[in-house]
């Protein structure tokens, strides 16, 4: 499958039709995690640092989840290393059993924890930012100085790079952030109007919409940019987001804007006058181009700057990867792939998971194209003060 063998891909499709994926029940995880040493061993967690270099360069992660304990646990297992830190945010709308299962699971690890504050997430508004911000706050206030870089994830992703590779790439960034931002792509109505939720009789559900009412400008003259929610954040950038008065003031101002998850820290990172640690200071045209191919994620927005045909299914404009996407993903330089559904064409996910495990065990023997990362705009043209 990894090599794109048509025969194997057809066989995989036949197997998935004949044998549908059966998720592991939450109750099963509750039972397994009563014996933590046995759970960690049987699930194959890495329990000792695989190299001195990785041990001395700890990373921090957040995982935003609302469903599928199994998929979140498998993501955690794939990225888990004992020297790293992991914060899990659970949507308060999620079932109580899911919350209890995750609480039982994290008790098995000294470096994994549930965010100290949980929020109800609504599509489009500021709440989409809060899982990452809540975990950022915990990382800054409870674990300050214990990690170098922070990566925010969702439970429906798969790593394409091993922990050793992530460390090498973080060292190449050397204090810079990988946060996307494009002034050319920014939809100014999102920051010039007030946005809110209302009930739609047409759709029979709550929708997030532009009221068309003007919003008072932010007190500073900022260039607004559009980017992704996810990024690679230096330690001092997180401290800036959580503790700096201007970043906090801007967050409050963003509360009633449209889709602030696509412009909050993107604006902080791309306005030179703010001097955000690790912020971008390069040409705007390079930033525009890079914002649709950011290295942090392999994410396929169908019809948006992406001519590649999705081999899985399209949900809300995003490709949910299937088995046919596996060969392409195996060649990608991005750090993570988004997104996967647990029971949809599951052998593609299984195959990438096995590949990642095998490469993790190869440690520094994997082939990493360092020059590719050294030439990224966010490496070449960003401040290098994010780790000082």
UniProtKB/TrEMBL annotation:
Entry's Gene Ontology cellular component terms: membrane
Membrane topology of the entry: Single-pass type II membrane protein
InterPro entries in the cross-refs: Glyco_trans_14
Localization in the cell: Membrane
Pathways per UniProt: Protein modification; protein glycosylation
Keywords recorded for this protein, A-Z: Glycoprotein, Glycosyltransferase, Membrane, Signal-anchor, Transferase, Transmembrane, Transmembrane helix
Designated name of the protein: Protein xylosyltransferase
Keyword Transmembrane among record annotations: yes
Pfam family, one: Branch
Family according to the record: Belongs to the glycosyltransferase 14 family.
A single MF term (Gene Ontology): acetylglucosaminyltransferase activity
């Amino acid at each position: 499958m990894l090599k794109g063998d048509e025969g194997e891909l057809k066989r995989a499709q036949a197997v998935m039709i004949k044998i549908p994926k059966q998720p592991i029940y939450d109750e099963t995880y509750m039972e397994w995690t009563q014996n933590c040493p046995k759970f960690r061993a049987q699930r194959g967690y890495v329990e000792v640092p695989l190299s001195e270099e990785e041990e001395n360069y700890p990373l921090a992660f957040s995982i935003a989840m609302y469903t599928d304990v199994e998929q979140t646990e498998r993501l955690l297992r794939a990225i888990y290393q004992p020297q790293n830190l992991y914060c899990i945010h659970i949507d308060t709308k999620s079932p109580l059993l899911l919350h209890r299962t995750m609480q039982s699971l994290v008790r098995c690890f000294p470096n994994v924890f549930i965010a100290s504050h949980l929020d109800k997430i609504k599509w489009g508004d500021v709440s989409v930012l809060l899982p990452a911000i809540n975990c950022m706050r915990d990382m800054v206030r409870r674990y300050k100085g214990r990690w170098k870089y922070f990566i925010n994830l969702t439970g429906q992703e798969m790593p394409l790079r091993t922990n050793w590779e992530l460390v090498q790439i973080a060292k190449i960034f050397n204090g810079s952030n990988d946060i996307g931002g494009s002034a050319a792509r920014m939809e100014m109505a999102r920051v010039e109007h007030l946005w809110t939720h209302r009930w739609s009789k047409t759709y029979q559900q709550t929708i997030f919409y532009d009221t068309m009412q003007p919003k008072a400008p932010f007190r500073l003259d900022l260039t607004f940019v559009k980017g992704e929610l996810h990024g690679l954040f230096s330690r001092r950038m997180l401290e800036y987001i959580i503790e700096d008065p201007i970043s906090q003031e801007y967050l409050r101002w963003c509360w009633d804007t449209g889709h602030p998850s696509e412009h909050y820290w993107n604006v902080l990172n791309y306005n030179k006058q703010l001097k955000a640690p690790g912020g971008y200071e390069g040409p705007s045209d390079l930033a525009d181009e890079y914002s649709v191919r950011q290295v942090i994620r392999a994410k396929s927005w169908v019809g948006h700057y992406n001519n590649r045909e999705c081999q899985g299914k399209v949900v809300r404009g995003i490709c949910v990867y299937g088995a046919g996407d596996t060969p392409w993903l195996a060649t990608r330089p991005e750090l993570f792939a988004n997104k996967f559904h647990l029971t949809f064409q599951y052998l593609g996910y299984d195959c990438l998971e096995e590949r990642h495990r095998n490469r993790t065990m190869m440690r520094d023997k994997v082939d990493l194209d360092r020059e590719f990362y050294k030439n990224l705009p966010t490496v070449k043209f960003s401040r290098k003060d994010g780790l000082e």
